[in-house]
Each structure stands twice: as structure tokens, then as C-alpha cells.
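Side project, low priority. Logging it here so it doesn't get lost.
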Amino acid sequence: MILAVDPGDTTGYAVLHMDGRCRLWGHKSAEDFITWLGTAPLDTVEHIVIEDFVLFARKAKKQTGSRFKTVQVIGALKMRAGQLGIPFHMQGSDIKPIAERWSKVFPPADHSKSHKYDAFNHGFYWLVKHGYAPTAWERERG
């Protein structure tokens, strides 16, 4: 299984089987996710996949005064992955359009409810890219 994460003030997460089926998904505040991560049963997780964070100049002013919860979540995940010896993989947000086409799982228009979808798609993309799972189209075609 893999744990896929869309980090942020609201952090989306998804646990996927290696064939791309979703075992569970949801979202939590950054603080609740970090707390959960400390005790989460990750013994069956083989990889952690997370959306990378880069502060772009065009968004820097908007981030003034930010506590960078996204970065805090990434740090907590890196630490937990290191403790457990789980490989950690970062992906850019630019994979989302392709991932959505591959999975046929599209987030709702309401961004506040999209985080678990984004986490799922990050995980699904990684699984397809590395040959573990077929795309939804391939699965339908049999």
C-alpha cells in the first residue's frame, strides 16, 4: 500500500492498494494530520507520495505571515518515513491533470473539498507511472 498526501492547512490523504484501489481517504487540518501521523498504523505502507511545495515569487507576498503548514506537514511526513524506513517521493502539482485523466477521479469545484481527491490522484499517478497499477481506461478495457 501507499500513503498519498496533499499537504496544506487542510491536508488530504489517501491510502491506496498497489493496484490503485483506494482503501481509505479523507482530509484533516494540518495539526490533526500531524498528530494522526504520529500514531497511524503504517506497517503496511510501502511508499509515501506527497505533493511538493514550492514558494513561487508571484505568490510570495500572499504568503507573508504564513506559518507554512504545508511545509510542516511535509517535514512530519519525512520524519515519520525516515523512522519507519518507508521510501518518500515528492511530485509536482503539475501532474494533476494527467492523473485525473488516468484515474477518472475528478475533484469537486469547491476547493475546500478537493484535497482528498488530489491526494488520491497523486498516489494513483505514482502507481501508474511506476507500473504497479493500470489506468482506469486500461482496467475498463480488460
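Brief comment: The beta strands are 2-6, 10-16, 22-29, 47-51, 88-91.
Revisit when time allows.
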